[in-house]
């Protein structure tokens, strides 16, 4: 969601990492936004043979309705001040798996973060293990609040 820009947002990193994982066959990846690397990203999707899994929607002014349709947001950013997308996702009860940098480090539970550039742990974060987010998806309360564990208790 937002600006498609490789250096900061690392869309290409995410796609290259997930394209090698068996989970890719079961994913629907939605890109909402545009930016300087959008055409390169669209080309990469084709090169990796992921045109069935990835849909581009362009810039959408009001994305609040989209949050109800999402299972997860992945943010593999190199740096990311205080991302509004994370706050919006939390408000709508959508889990976020993000690199452990800047504002995301301050507001997301440690189980939802991975070291910046660690593609294996990014995938584990939302797919592979009980230490990841998969176990949280079943019982995630609507309107997750930062600073609380999944049961609503202070962390």
If you had to describe this structure to a student in words, what would you say it looks like?
- By secondary structure, this protein is an alpha/beta fold.
- 37% of the residues lie in helices and 12% in strands.
- It is built from 8 helices and 5 strands, in the order ααβαβαβαβαβαα.
- The chain has helices spanning 6-9, 11-19, 38-47, 64-67, 84-91, 102-107, 119-128, 134-139; strands at residues 29-32, 54-58, 73-75, 96-99, 113-114.
- The strands form 2 sheets. It has a 3-stranded parallel sheet with strand order 3-4-5, sandwiched between helices. It has a two-stranded parallel ribbon with strand order 1-2.
- Helix 2 (11-19) crosses helix 7 (119-128).
- The longest helix is centred in the first third of the chain and has 10 residues, at 38-47.
- It is globular, with a radius of gyration of 15 Å.
């Amino acid at each position: 969601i937002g600006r498609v820009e490789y250096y900061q947002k690392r869309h290409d990193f995410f796609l290259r990492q997930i394209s090698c994982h068996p989970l890719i066959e079961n994913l629907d990846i939605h890109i909402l936004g545009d930016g300087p690397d959008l055409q390169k990203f669209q080309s990469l999707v084709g090169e990796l043979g992921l045109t069935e899994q990835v849909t581009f929607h362009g810039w959408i002014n009001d994305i609040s309705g989209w949050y109800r349709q999402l299972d997860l947001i992945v943010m593999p950013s190199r740096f990311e001040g205080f991302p509004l997308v994370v706050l919006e996702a939390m408000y709508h009860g959508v889990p976020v798996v993000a690199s452990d940098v800047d504002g995301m480090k301050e507001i997301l539970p440690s189980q939802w973060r991975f070291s910046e550039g660690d593609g294996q742990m990014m995938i584990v974060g939302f797919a592979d293990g009980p230490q990841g987010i998969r176990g949280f998806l079943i019982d995630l309360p609507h309107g997750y609040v930062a600073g609380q564990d999944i049961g609503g208790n202070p962390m």
